[in-house]
Amino acid sequence: MYDVIIVGAGPAGLTAAIYARRASKTVLVLEAKAWGGQIINTPDIENYPVVAHISGADFANELYNQALALGAEVKLEKVIGVEDLGKIKKVRSTLAEYEAGAVILATGSENRKLGLDREQELTGRGVSYCATCDGNFFRNKDVAVVGGGNTALEDALYLADLANKVYLIHRRDAFRGEETTVDRLRQRENVEIIYNATVTALLGEKRLSGIEVTDKITGGKRSIELKGLFVAVGRIPENESFSALIDLDQAGYAVAGENCRTKVPGVFVAGDNRTKEVRQLVTAAADGAVAATEAVKFLNA
Predict the structure, then answer these.
(1) Are residues 227 and 249 in the same domain?
(2) pLDDT for 177-194, tens place per residue?
(3) Which of 103, 254, 262, 281 has the highest Cβ tally under 10 A?
(4) CB-based burial of residue 52 (10 Å sphere; 0-12 exposed, 13-18 middle, 19+ buried)?
């Protein structure tokens, strides 16, 4: 029996563990893969306040060790369900069952991949899924953005202020995003929009040096030399195991406001798997702090 069980050991979950332990609550963190979440794949972090530069792996290790030093318990077990029993919440993993007075779901979300050979290998070496995180590394270089929604359009507009040239590649002949943003992109001299096309190969050895683009109508192939590819084709929140417990929106994100409370008293959500506008390292940590604070209030009520 624990005061708080946290599902997920990414930045949101580990920050929640730190705040809950500082409030003298017993804490168990359950993680399916490895602590740190997706940030461990990021070679360089330069947008986190106070820390001018740190690798994602080092950041994750520092956060993990801080939580352990405060007395949080971390187990590598995949959670397959959470049951609301009123004052008690039962958490089932693939190995055991646990009980707690409050549960924080911090499972994050996964970037939707293009499914190309060597995509994982080149992630952090030219392939990125976050323009605001990594765009500055490609200042005055040629880059490309793949996608057709608002995120892709906004990424391209953001990168147009940094990069030498931006290729915006979309598999259809019209964008799903706002037309006003498309119009702004058309007015930028360093933006080239490529319609009805898909990226079919990643070029380069140790780092990305270019992409192969295939025209969906003619089948023609084109090689483009560039240093950065920003993939903006959506995210997949990891909330499937909790769909019977909490409300999810149409995209699968957990419905919760800035107080991180779900419709179930004692169940909170923090990080990239909740409904929110900005999904960054700093906002994940903020969610973890808020969720833990709200959980402590709930337990002390």
Answers:
(1) no
(2) 889 999 999 999 999 999
(3) 103
(4) exposed
Tokens 């461990």, residue?
40
Count of domains for the chain: 2
Catalytic residues: 130, 133-134
**Full residue range of the structural domain in which residue 281 is found:** 2-111+235-300
Alpha helices in the chain (DSSP H): 11-22, 56-69, 119-122, 131-134, 150-160, 179-186, 281-300
User: Given 3-state DSSP classes, what are the helix, strand and coil percentages for the chain, each rounded to the nearest 5?
Assistant: 30, 30, 40
Question: Which one, of 139, 138, 159, 142, lies nearest residue 232 by Cα?
Answer: 159
Give 1-21 pLDDT, tens digit per residue: 999 999 999 999 999 999 999
The answer to whether residues 181 and 221 belong to one domain is: yes
Q: What is the CATH number of the domain that holds 73?
A: 3.50.50.60
Q: How many helices (H) and strands (E) does the chain have?
A: 7, 17
